[in-house]
Amino acid sequence: MLLANNNGYYGEYLHDGKTDFVDLYPDVYVGRLACSNIREVKTVVNKIINYETLPEKEWFNRIILCGGDTFPGNDLMEGEYMNQLVAENMSEFKIVKLWASSGNLNAKNIFNEINKGAGFIHFSGHGSLIGWATHPYNSDEWIGFNILHTLLLFNGYKLPIIFLDACSTAHLDIYLINIKGIITKTIPCFAWTFIKNPRGGAIATIGSTRVAYTLLTEGGAGYLGLHFFLAYKNNATPAEMLVQAQNDYLNNLWKDGFTIEEFILLGDPSLRIGGYYE
After folding, report:
1. For a Cys-Cys bond, which of 11, 23, 69, 85 suits 135, CB 3.0-4.6 Å?
2. Of 151, 128, 269, which Cα lies nearest the Cα of 202?
3. What is the pLDDT along the chain (278 residues), one digit of tens a residue?
């Protein structure tokens, strides 16, 4: 790896006006368990062990698709469009569509469907440090799901893998500052709150650490998310799926360091998807 500015930070993309020269192809499988205390470590390890070893997995064959009108003013319902492409390539799963156009996209329905259990969830829309949201058709109204909802989920070990096609949902370095400018407390990002929930939530999430962009199937978060699901196969791991999506991007589009570097996996990269008794 060559450094553009010799400042000791590696893999920088447009930092202080400079970009390091990296090929962007993954060399190792990486995931992060962003635990902040021993209690969270115990929670996450327990969830991983039970997810992989519990024999009953009828709930796994469901995929929940959440989308609406990401960019009002266009004729296309972008989030639903990307959801549909995922559905077409995950046809072996029972498809659960929570769509703005169907009138069933709301926090209550998302909450209830996750609590039933699912193998995967695809959120396509807008994101922030504390939640995900989208719009009804050509409307400024927001429909969303946030950390207050994720922390109340009670789906037990019926845990999905979630791809968040949105901005900033895996923004790990969030902190509060008091009036004297002193950091007082870090807070968990939206993607991590799914995993740290001891009563349910998710087993792994893929989200963006900062603002993302999408060209739908032509690039950005939309392309990466779709190709994450295209990479699914039996006995896969979430890291293998993400790396395949990144390689597809680099091989078929361009060396988009912005997208490739900011989407990260929270969870065990070696997790056996569906468990050993699928």
Report:
1. 69
2. 151
3. 555 667 777 777 766 667 777 888 999 999 999 998 999 999 999 999 999 998 778 899 999 999 999 999 988 999 999 999 999 999 999 999 999 999 999 999 999 999 999 999 999 999 999 999 999 999 999 999 999 999 999 999 999 999 999 999 999 987 665 556 665 667 789 999 999 999 999 999 999 999 999 999 999 999 999 999 999 987 799 999 999 999 999 999 999 988 999 999 999 999 999 988 64
- This prediction's pTM: 0.93
CA 194 to CA 189: how far, in whole Å? Answer: 9
Please check whether residue 46 lies inside any domain of the structure.
yes
Q: What is the CATH number of the domain that holds 177?
A: 3.40.50.1460
Please tell me whether residue 13 adopts helix, strand or coil conformation.
coil
* DSSP single-letter state for residue 36: -
Q: In this structure, is residue 104 part of a structural domain?
A: yes
State the residue range of the domain holding 107.
38-266
Q: Does residue 19 sit within a domain?
A: no
d(CA 152, CA 138): 31
Residue type, 47: K
